[in-house]
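Report of the visiting student (M.T.), summer placement. My assignment was to run the structure pipeline on a short list of targets and document each run. The first record concerns Large ribosomal subunit protein bL21.
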Amino acid sequence: MYAIVKAGGRQEKVSVGDIVVVDRISGTSGDSVELEPVLLVDGDKVTSDAKGLEKVTVTAEIVRDDKGKKISIVKYKNKTGYRKRMGHRQKLTRLKVTGIK
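After the run finished, the structure tokens were exported:
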């Protein structure tokens, strides 16, 4: 059984026991989070209608907070001496899916 859930601005395919990395979610390590299901596949049966998905709950546990890979941003304009360097690391949360009901 697996589900497609909305998590951190994206859709992720999850099943019980999977570890998913999403944008930062407030909470501490060990807290339980409920994810919004978009699609549920249970063997041959596929549920995608709103009424069927109201009954489905996907729960996950916060494992830890992370930072993403550093990206560098470089701006340069020719003949003017303008150079600018910046960096960015996205704040992330690592979740472990505990149940799909």
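The chain has one domain: 2-100. The chain has a mean pLDDT of 96. I thank the supervising group for their guidance throughout the placement.
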